Amino acid sequence: MNTTHALRAVRRTLLPALSLAALCAAVATAQAADIDVSDARLSILPGDTPGAGYFTLHNASDETISLVGAESPAFEAVEVHESMEHDGMMHMHELEAVEVEPGASIEFAPKGHHLMLMRRTQEVNVGDEVDVTLRFADDTTLPVTFDVVSPTAL
Questions:
Q1: Does 62 share its domain with 109?
Q2: In which domain, by residue range, is 86 found?
Q3: Distance CA 97, CA 2 (A)
Q4: Judgement on whether residues 40 and 7 belong to the same structural domain of the protein
Q5: Count of the separate structural domains present in the chain
């Protein structure tokens, strides 16, 4: 195959693939634009105890969204948790996903849904900001900056 034929073959196969990849990236970005996070706070105690992430997640899209995880460079692990009372005792467990219906909001708050941020990889103190990336079931990600607060500030 000569050079001209090789270039034509690349144009026929590679350019449509790149166009499709760009379109998919634009759709993911548009979907993230329909997801809003407000009042993002990270409650933290001194030492290497886990922190708890609280925020309000609003779905302005026309489809149900599903938060499936999160990550932060400041922590080795971030999990989505829920605390609930059962027989007078508080229990906490990890969730695989939290769904938010179109036009609805869900509050991540003490004694309810929250992010559990574990094993710090860097020093984190009250007054700092911590970057967290929320991950959704459709592979959309949303970067959020959390203000680090004392548990007494909640």
A1: yes
A2: 36-153
A3: 53
A4: no
A5: 2
Dihedral-angle region of residue 10 (phi above 0 means left; psi in -120 to 50 means alpha; beta otherwise): alpha
Residue labelled with tokens 């959020």: 144
Q: How far is residue 32's CA from residue 30's CA, in Å, rounded to a whole number?
A: 5
**Can you tell me which residue has the tokens 């001209």?**
4
Task: Give me 110's structure tokens.
Answer: 């003490």
Q: What is the CATH number of the domain that holds 55?
A: 2.60.40.1890
Please give the biggest Cα pair distance in the chain.
Answer: 78
At 104-115, the pLDDT tens digits run: 999 999 999 999
| Residues with Cβ within 8 Å of residue 38, at least 6 apart in sequence | 55, 56, 58
Q: What is the pLDDT of residue 96?
A: 97
* Average pLDDT score over residue span 109-124: 96
Amino acid at 2: N
